[in-house]
Structure of Aromatic hydrocarbon degradation protein:
Amino acid sequence: MKKVYLLLILLFGNVGDLQASGFGVFTQGAAGLGQGNAVVAHSPGPSSLYFNPALLTEVPGTRVEAGTTLVYADRDFTSDLTGNREPGDDALQFPSTFYATHQFDDRWSAGLGLFFPFGLATEWDESWEGRYIATRSDLFTFNINPVLACRLSDRVSIAAGLDVLYLDAELERQINSTGLGIILNPPGGFGPLTDAGQQFSGDGWGVGYNIGLFVRVSDRVNFGATFRSHIDVDVDGNLNFSIPPDAAMLASVLTDTSGHADVRLPRQATFGLAWEASGQLTLEVGGRWEDWSSTDELRVDLDQPVLGQSSDVMPRDWDDTWAFNIGGEYQLNDTVALRAGYLYSDNPVPASTFDPSVPDADAQLLTLGAGFSLDRWTLDLAYGFEHHRSRNKNNAVGASTGFAANGKYSTDLHLVAASLAYQF
C-alpha cells in the first residue's frame, strides 16, 4: 500500500494545484485600480458593475467601457539545498474587461459585464529544482455578469446579478522517471532515466450570484457593500504524459486518462465608506473578505485507475483572507482627475501546503492613476506596484520525489491599466 501511495504522489504531485483557481484577479478597471480598488461607495463609472452594482443608479445614460491591464510578474526562488537563485519564467498577462450600462429612468438601471474574476499564471524552467511539483500553472476564468439595479429612495440603491463562469485550467510538471523506476523495479530500478512530462487540462462551467447595496448616509458620506456567492465548477479534463524514449518501460504506468474534479470558488464580500471632502476630492476606505476556507481538500476522480486507485484526495487547508484599502480621487478640472490608492492583503495559503504553483504571500499594492474626459469619451490610466513579502517554503510538499524545492520565494508585480469609455 505504501508503494501505491508513493506512486500516486509521483504521478499527481499536489493535485490540489487546481485550487490555484482561488487566486483572485482584481484588475477590473483602470479607474478603480488607480484608487487601490477603493471604489465600493463611490462610482468609477461603468466598472461599478464589478465593484458594486448598486452604484449603477449613479451612472447616467447609456455607457460602454472596455479595458485591459498589463500584468508583469517578477518571481525568483533561492534554494535552501544549493543556495542558488532560480528566476521564474516571467511573462505578460492581459486580463481584460467589458462593461455596458443603461439607466432606464431615475429608479432602474441595468448592465452587463464580461471579466476575469480568478486567474493564475506561474511558469518555471523544466530543469529547475521544483520541476516535480510544478513547471507551468495556467488558470483562466471568464465571467458573464448581467445586473439589475434599483433606486429604492433618494438615499438607498440595491442591485442583484447572475455570475455565469467558465473555467479552463492547464497544469504541467515533470515526472521523476528514475525515482519511479526504482519504485516499480526495486532495488536499482532501470538506471538513470530522462524525466517524463505531465499535463492536466480541463474546463467546466459554474453559476453564482452577486448583490450590492449603496447608501447615502449624509450629504457627504456614502456606504457601499457587495457580496458574491461561491461558484461550484464541474471540471472535466484529461491527464496526459509525454514519455521519453529511454523511459518507454514506464508507458504501462503513465497511461493517459480522463478525470473529474469539483472546484469551489470562494464567496467574496466587500465594503467601503466614502467621504466627499469637497466638490473636488473624494476619499474612501474599505475592506474585502474571501472565503478560501470553504474548500479544505480537492478530490480528483480518475476514469482509468492508477495501480488500482481511482481517486485521490489532497488537503488544502487554506484560510479566509482579509484585505484593506484606501484611495482617493481629486477632480483637477472638468477634464482631468488624479487618483492614488493603497491596498494590503493577506494570503490564504498556510505554511504546510505552500508550493511553487501558487507562490502566494501577504502583499502591498501602491497605485497611481488619472482620468481624462472629453465630450462623450473618458480615458482612464493607472499604474500599480504590488510587492509580495518574501516567503520561505519548509514543508514536505514534493519531498517524496527528493526535490521539495524548499527555500525563499519572492514576487513583485507591475500593473499598467487602461480603460476607454463612451457615453451615448
Summary: Helices lie at 2-12, 30-33, 48-51, 177-184. The chain has four helices and 21 strands.
